[in-house]
Each structure stands twice: as structure tokens, then as C-alpha cells.
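Hello again, I could really use a second opinion on something today. I've dropped the whole record in just underneath, so have a look.
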Amino acid sequence: MALAGSGVFSETLDGDVFKYYADGEWKKSSSGKSVAIINPTTRKTQYKVQACSQEEVNKVMDLAKSAQKLWAKTPLWKRAELLHKAAAILKEHKAPIAECLVKEIAKPAKDAVTEVVRSGDLISYCAEEGVRILGEGKFLVSDSFPGNERTKYCLTSKIPLGVILAIPPFNYPVNLAVSKIAPALIAGNSIVLKPPTQGAVSALHMVHCFHLAGFPKGLISCVTGKGSEIGDFLTMHPGVNCISFTGGDTGIAISKKAGMIPLQMELGGKDACIVLEDADLDLVAANIIKGGFSYSGQRCTAVKVVLVMESVADALVEKVNAKVAKLSVGPPENDSDITPVVSESSANFIEGLVLDAKEKGATFCQEYKREGNLIWPLLLDNVRPDMRIAWEEPFGPVLPVIRINSVEEGIHHCNASNFGLQGCVFTKDVNKAMLISDAMETGTVQINSAPARGPDHFPFQGIKDSGIGSQGITNSINMMTKVKTTVINLPSPSYTMG
């Protein structure tokens, strides 16, 4: 298997430090500094990336602005062609990129490969969708509004916003970067990518695939570095025309500082799973395992609280516990179900939630076990609203169960959260499912399945502290454009075929 930074990717590496990407070239930062990326499994430095300076960010922004002007004049079919090419190259190099994901963020090997392939599919779909929706305008006539003759023809089209700043999170550093980059590019924008530190090398490899596809110089940039040095500098940069951010509550701070530009943000959730008496409990248990524990619960759309009717709670907990016992725990290289969480600080935060629940009397269905960043899967039963785990997002393999005595109680708990990303409801009664779905204050409700962002062309959005704007390929393309209208004023009313 090709190693990171070798073969076709060798130009991305200088000694043991990965370069950043600007003006169509791989460069070393003038800062002479690097940022270490810690492997969550070994807890040792795995990779190093450039610590870019504010001056380098300024240069990248200037280049992005001028490259965008030319790109906007590139025919739509040609933009699509380049995206299809990038998608093919990305899929072709899935092995070395997946290897980075395994080492940087401890993603199980098979899931890492899936992430890269899915990203290629997203780019291709985006190219197709962009050709369709951007190739269409609107034609309005004035006499449909009272008091007007047909003397005005209005043509509307979609034009690019300019420079898009993309900030993806650690958990899907390739896929959630691509979900911002592809819509931005097809719509005629340029892109500045600031990858997460954990996940930066995967992102740099992905960017190299766009480089190999032959996109114009300066159109795509990838700057790495410390958030403390270039984070605010990037998000408040006057050259940025739109920010697409996925991550935690940093997004709220960004939104307060960003000024008058479009924002697309997805900031986490506390996705509730409401289980009614008539639910198929085997189906529920399978989805709780998939939803709550896949990638060690480090997903925005993970099931993060189970609200189950008291009469079926014992039976459900028993079924879930039987499945938890079968989960394999270990390093991502072995394709373990549960792998180390991303960082020591993350593991410490999760532990804090667990200890609080212990102190307040939650029932531990498994013993709490931790080695380094590796936390064994844990189901907490009889969780009450006074426990932190009832409300806070652990982003780890720990799942609280709250027993409820009415559907209203479940909806109330779901809606009392400051998050509102997704939720799910399990019942065989479609009428009840719809009534509950309508009552849940979340961006999406899944009926009889665990929450999930995909398929990637479905709308994906959060309300309240879970974000602003909507994602999904079509929504992202539309969001990364603005409407331009041209009105033709005729000397006298005109009626075709009159």
C-alpha cells in the first residue's frame, strides 16, 4: 500500500513536514514552524504540517480573488469536466488517503475507504447537478403584477459569490471538505480550505487530487496552521465572501464576527431517538448500535439520547446490551468497531460526563473502561434530566437512556435541548410518526432509522444551536450563488402571438 506522502503524493512532503497548497504549488511556510498531528491510537506524533502565517493567508486570498474572476468565465461544461476528473483521481488514490484517515483520526480502515469513495461520488453528482441548476434561469414578465403592462422582461440567473472559506471538522476531513469544495467550484467560486489539524494530511492528499485534475492556479488553496494564529484572521478576512463551516460551538463565535456574508454552518447535535411501545425492538436496537456507536459516536448525527417508553425499556436495554457486548474494541487498523477517540482532551471530556452520571446514580450497563484515548462502549440506563449526559454532546461511545411515560415527555425533552440537528422516532403507526416528526424541533426526523446526513443530495440542516443554512448538494450550490437580474424595458407593451 502506498504510504502517505509517497508516489504521486511525494511533492506534498518536505522532509517530514507536509507542505501547504497555494497558487497551484506545494509550498513551505516562511514561518519555519510546523504543527504536530498526534495519532489518537499511539498518542505519538504521526505527521507534521506547515504553520502558515497571516501574510501567507493574505497572499492566498489575493490569488483566490483573481483566479475566481477567470474561473467564472470558464464554461459550465468545462468546470463539470474538471470536477469529474478530480472525482476519478480521488477514487483511484483511495488507499493512501484512507491510510491517513486511519492514522490521523483513528477511523476504522473500511470506513476510511468508504469516506474517500463517497467523496468521489459527491463530486461527480455535484458536477451533474450544477450543470442542470446553473444552466437554468428564469424569465418574468411585468404584466402579471397589477397596474403594469407587458413592458418589462426580467431575466434572472445565478452568479458566484466569490471566495468561499471552507472549514471542515476532524471526523470527516475529506468528505466534509469535498461537500463544500465541489458546490463552490461548479458554481464558479474559488475556494480556500482550512482543514482541521487532525485530518489535515488527509485533506492535503485530497487537494492534491484536485491539483492533478488540472484546475487553474490559485483557484484552490489549502492553508494549515494553528487556529490561534490564523483562525480568526481567516474567518474575519475581508477577502472572504462566504463561510461554510462544520464543527462545534466555534461556529457560533465565527457567526458573531464574520460580518455581512452568507454563512453555512452545522454545529453538532444531541439527536434524540424516541421509541414507542409498538416499535420493532430488534430494528431499534440495531439502529441504536449503528447510530450511537459507529465511529465511536464521533458523528454530528449520532444517536445521542434514547427516549424510550417505560413499558418496553427493559426489553430494549437488554437487546442493546447484547449487541454492545459483541462490538470489537481496538485500533482502527484492525477495523475495530470502537476505536480511540480523537484526542486526550476529548476522552477527558467524555469521562467527565460519565463520572457526573455515576455520581448522580445512572445505571451502568457495562463497566466504564478507558485506556489512553480508547473508551469502551457504554450504555447508561435510568439517566435523569439533572445529569450532564442528558443534554451535553459526548462525541464518544457513551449513550444515555432516559425512560419516559408519555410521547409528550419524549418530545419535550427533545425540544428542550439547545441543539436541533436530527432526531428519530420508532413506531409502526405512520400517523403517530408524522405527528411526532412535526412536533420535533430538529432539521430532520428519521422514521424507523438512525439519523444520518446522507445520501449527500438530501437537504441537511440544523436549527437552534445546530446551525444555519442548509446543506446537501443542491442546497449548497444554491447557497454559494446569488441571484442577478437584468430587466429589459420595452418602448411599448409587447404580447407574443397577440
User: Anything to note?
Assistant: The two ends are 71 Å apart (CA to CA).
